[in-house]
Amino acid sequence: MLRSLLSLFLCFSAILPLLNVSSLADVITCSGTVPMRYRNDKISITDFGGVGDGITLNTKAFEEAIYRIQRLRRRGGTLLYIPPGVYLTGSFNLTSRMTLYLARGAVIRATQDTLTWPLIAPLPSYGRGRELPGGRYMSFIHGDGLHDVIITGENGTIDGQGDVWWNMWRQRSLQFTRPNLIEFMNSRNIIISNTIFLNSPFWNIHPVYCSNVVIRYVTILAPVDSPNTDGIDPDSSSNVCIEDSYIATGDDLVAVKSGWDEYGIAYGRPSFDITIRRVTGSSPFAGIAIGSETSGGVENVLAENINLYNMGIGIHLKTNIGRGGIIKNITVSDVYMEHVRKGIKIAGDVGDHPDDKFDPNALPVVKEVTIRNILGVKVLQPGLIQGLKNSPFTDICLSKINLHGVEGPETPWKCSDVSGAALGVSPGPCAELTSTHQTGTCSNSY
């Protein structure tokens, strides 16, 4: 694994000139979005009977350590230190004003005893579990209604041991929706950094109904055939920064969401002010995705300096009839992609429905989308933009895009029910976006 990561880092370094990042001094970060707190009070999991032998179950030790942090409320918060070793545990809840710090060589490993896994209510913006009706299994590490929480360290590992869950999904023996690896709900001022996330049962990192979230310097790994193991999914959340990370999973690397059909429309909480930069990864699905659950709306998303390898789709905006919601002011720039099935896809016929109660007249609105400075090598199809007949996608700008295919004739773009402009696009874009001068949609993008 480390050899693969090193190879990708060298590859990433080689293409920095393509991404207009000339030196570390020029690198923009959002580290000031949430301050990194120094905790004067420090405790170790071993103080509460934690044993890092990979066999002893440490659920009680984690619960008691976190209860101590919650009860004493030390000024400035408390750091919970996880020393080197493998700490097997069931799922547990975090508390406010704490840092979970994993030393180098430390592993927090999820038990595979699914019968002991707690159930929690479905998210109100989904109305049911994402996979199955009813409740859902609680995430491995969970937080609800928290503030000032940090997960960091020396690149220790949080291991979800997800293969037992993946097999249950394949065998259709699940009773409820699988657990995420990390989920924060209704929380603010969260930092996740310098940690490896491995083999999540379902989505890896899921901030939902959150604000002020920084996720940086993380590595997220799951097998290419692991089902629905999205990397990072900001969901009905605001002021989220994701940067300087490597993700290789079985589903979308980063997917911005905001609720599902009539439940998301009723809950009405959008995702907005999302920044994604300097993310490298690979997946059979999408690199940067919006949706498909976008019923609360998604606005003001910037994704830049992205490097994608062996992808299904490079950039994917996806929604559906019945979703409602608006997808607006989305900018994706400075992307390098290699060995990709489809470079760019913006479509209104993607994703399933929670039930048959969705409103077929709840049509999504997609507008003000700019995709620029994209270089693709060995891209089988450059792109597809498929709007809705009764809700065409508008103000779509493609600028300075080169998506080179394999040997043989170039595969053309496919478009319908879309308007906008395309400048400097190769192979040539669809007629609906053809423009020979800088006006309107692309006037500030060339």
TrEMBL record:
Gene3D superfamilies: Single-stranded right-handed beta-helix, Pectin lyase-like (2.160.20.10). The keyword Hydrolase applies. Residues 1-25 form the signal peptide. Transmembrane segments: none annotated. Keywords: Glycosidase, Hydrolase, Signal. InterPro entries: GH28_Enzymes (IPR051801), Glyco_hydro_28 (IPR000743), PbH1 (IPR006626), Pectin_lyas_fold (IPR012334), Pectin_lyase_fold/virulence (IPR011050). GO terms for biological process: carbohydrate metabolic process. GO terms for molecular function: polygalacturonase activity. Belongs to the glycosyl hydrolase 28 family. This is Pectin lyase-like superfamily protein.
